[in-house]
Amino acid sequence: MIEMIGIEKSYGDVPVLTGIDLRVERGEVFAVLGPNGAGKTTTINILTTLISPDRGVATVDGRDVVADPDGVRRAISVTGQSAAVDDFLTGFENLVMIGRLARLGSSARRRAAELLAQFDLVDAGSRRVSTYSGGMRRRLDLAISLVARPPVIFLDEPTTGLDPRSRQTLWGIVRDLAAEGTTILLTTQYLEEADQLADRIAVIAGGRIAALGTASELKQRVARERVDLTFADVEGFGTAMGIVAGEHVVVDAVQLSISVATDQPVATVRDLIDVMDRNQITLASIATTKPSLDEVFMALTEPTGSAGSIDATTAGVAA
Fold this sequence. Notes:
six-stranded mixed β-sheet, four-stranded antiparallel β-sheet, alpha/beta, elongated, Rossmann fold, about 25% strand
């Protein structure tokens, strides 16, 4: 549904995209991450025909964004970083207006009512949008994007500034849309959002795709799971420091804890418990921790390019 091959874009002498390649399948939620200025919005602007690439080919729903921009626009909806709603109209009137612009004719009012119900805005539908909260405005903005039932939706940081409850509501709506077959490409600054929603994630750094894959694949690329041991007393902690060995062992003397990076968390937990028992060391707790997208983001967007610096292997445990 979305494809970019060798896309390049510069603003004056400043290169923003230096060779973007990606492919998004039908019904997929695809997230684009990157630091500020990485080119996320430029990528969406190219795909939505707002700007043209300097080089490369981009298509949406089989239509070339340069050769057939009108065809692309008929296949998409865009929700930008700011809600594009008319404050002087009611929520219902906003939806009906867009329906008429989309040539829905007499069905525009019926479609508006359907969307108010879908986005839990029925009670607010007769109120002016100027009275809406930020979360309500954002829900209405997304509803407007769906008036014409487009096969592809672009969401540019859709939950920026929303409270946790409103963000969760929007996540549920995005999941429902994808389940119905809508293809969604979103950019976000919230790593948890990409982790929760995206089927696949692309990380942009240095004008290129630094990594692409599922959240699990990206986490495994830059970090391993950890087994975290917390000790009941200083004596046991001191003894354990002399037993647990490995390049990727992290010791915290204040918290009386030792963290062991591992490729095999179950086996490592079993081995560590056995070792602690043999040496009569009392544990306060033991737990496994999966790597986070925060670690992925920091590693892959490191200016020095040292993405492999936090790679971890199974730590050794001495008898």
